[in-house]
Design brief:
The structure holds two protein chains of two kinds. Chain A is mainly beta. Chain A has no helices and twelve strands. By secondary structure, chain B is an all-beta fold. In chain B, strand 4 and strand 5 form a beta hairpin. Classes of the chains: A mainly beta, B mainly beta.
Chain lengths: 114, 116
């Protein structure tokens, strides 16, 4: 079974629209870590955020915000007022306390149309 | 501090040839990971090391693949002999434990391998 599911394969939005990228995870550990990474067309993987399982506070960083809900095992990512530079593939990832593996979702390809 | 450094950035080779990909992790990071990314399979973990010791190599596709980490600042991923289906982008990443916490992965820019 997939430990991290990103059901949205591709999303297209028009510039300035808000967009939410979904991430659902599965783990039996009580301590775990969730991450979002961005992969722009240039190919590198850029770290965006890390969350540990004990911190359910939502986080906002500029136009980016993250909604962590343990009750639904979700860690969704919202981009407000999207820009063309936000076009990229976004990956959600999980790392469990047992072991140090990182489990990546299949990614969501976001295209922001000018 | 420099990030994770991978070489070569691009490699084109013919089927049957040996390929060696190299990685220098961030200084002080005690975990090193090798990932492969393809359109069909996404990001796959091949192997990871902790303090230069391979911990989990269950993702290594077959015996043609091998990875080493002779010291804390260098790792190699070798494919011998290479096959066209090995064509992919290979990423190296490193991380550190931060007390009881798992640190984030820092990725290199990747090595794009094309096997003809």
């Amino acid at each position: 079974a997939q430990k991290v599911t990103q059901a949205q394969t591709e999303i297209s939005v028009v510039e300035k629209e808000d967009v939410t990228l979904d991430c659902v995870y599965e783990t039996r550990d009580t301590t775990y870590y969730l991450f979002w990474y961005k992969q722009p067309p240039s190919g590198e993987l850029v770290f965006l955020i890390r969350r540990n399982s004990f911190d359910e506070q939502n986080e906002i960083s500029g136009r980016y915000s993250w909604n962590f809900q343990k009750s639904t095992s979700s860690f969704n990512f919202t981009i407000t007022a999207s820009q063309v530079v936000d076009s990229a593939v976004y990956f959600c990832a999980l790392s469990e306390e047992t072991g140090n593996q990182f489990y990546f979702g299949t990614g969501t390809s976001l295209t922001v149309i000018p | 501090d420099a990030g994770v450094i991978q070489s070569p950035r691009h490699e084109v080779t013919e089927m049957g040839q040996e390929v060696t990909l190299r990685c220098k992790p961030i200084s002080g990071h005690d975990y090193l990971f090798w990932y492969r990314q393809t359109m069909m399979r996404g990001l796959e973990l091949l192997i990871y090391f902790n303090n230069n010791v391979p911990i989990d190599d269950s993702g290594m596709p077959e015996d043609r693949f091998s990875a080493k980490m002779p010291n804390a600042s260098f790792s190699t991923l070798k494919i011998q002999p290479s096959e066209p289906r090995d064509s992919a982008v290979y990423f190296c990443a490193s991380s550190e434990r931060q007390g009881e916490n798992t640190g984030e992965l820092f990725f290199g820019e990747g090595s794009r391998l094309t096997v003809l």
